């Protein structure tokens, strides 16, 4: 399922309309040090890109150097990663609708051909630009090889995907491949929250982890925990990724990530679970539904969850309310947690 998150605020409206006024960016969830985006100067581990929301709203794309060979890209709040080898470029996730901009950004740092493309997982918003990219590279030799996990390849087959299929697969849930001497490890989430082929790809020598939709760095969890199909295994997925050897995380959205971002998410989730649990004990079944006008019992569960979500959100507001996207994201996340707590005891 494709989703396109857009942060709607007075800042966004002002920028869209071409006005001059702008609100301050939200505070960092991890007390980060910010630096201006640069394709030439690498970030130190833990540093983040300054004014990222404003850049997403005003710039064609943001390009940031992470290491001597690895780059971080974002446009329209969607991001990806590439590695420049001696002979070619390894590109992760040709984002839907962004092939021309991605190619332009790659060309800012190298004229080497894109020789391999990795699918992180089978969601079209992250890999839907593959054919458009290949069209732009028509005539290039060699033709880029598409690499994906076996689980992603199997899922594309099951669903009859119209996107270009992988040429090579990596064993699921743990496997690896080599690109010009760089080892790239697949760490699949055998029990995944986001989608069944969700995974983290570790560029071992670069200490960079590419794991779209695991978390939005420097933000509270995004809507439905980054579009996850379930909440059930999310904490385990975060801990699994945290245990790997990396300094930089590209979560596909949000800022450049660090281990502190995972710690923040785990703390936030613990607080949210506690707040939802408290609200579930306070809100009686049938809250918000008038029995005199009830024509179907199906109105009762949504009304119950909605009040639980509202109370849990307000309980977290003093601690988290000033952070990026809190009001839009927390209520649906609270409903997912309520469904989890209601289902598993």
From TrEMBL:
Highest taxon, organism lineage? Bacteria
Indicate yes or no for the key word Glycoprotein: no
Gene Ontology MF terms:
hydrolase activity
The transmembrane residues are none
Q: Which key words are in the record?
A: Hydrolase, Signal
Fetch the Pfam families from UniProt.
Lactamase_B (PF00753)
Q: Does the keyword Signal apply?
A: yes
Q: Which residues form the signal peptide?
A: 1-24
Q: What are the Metallo-beta-lactamase domain coordinates in residue numbering?
A: 78-253
Q: Which PANTHER family match?
A: METALLO BETA-LACTAMASE SUPERFAMILY LIPOPROTEIN (PTHR42951:SF22), METALLO-BETA-LACTAMASE DOMAIN-CONTAINING (PTHR42951)
Q: What is this protein called?
A: Hydrolase
Q: Which organism is it from?
A: Rhodovulum viride
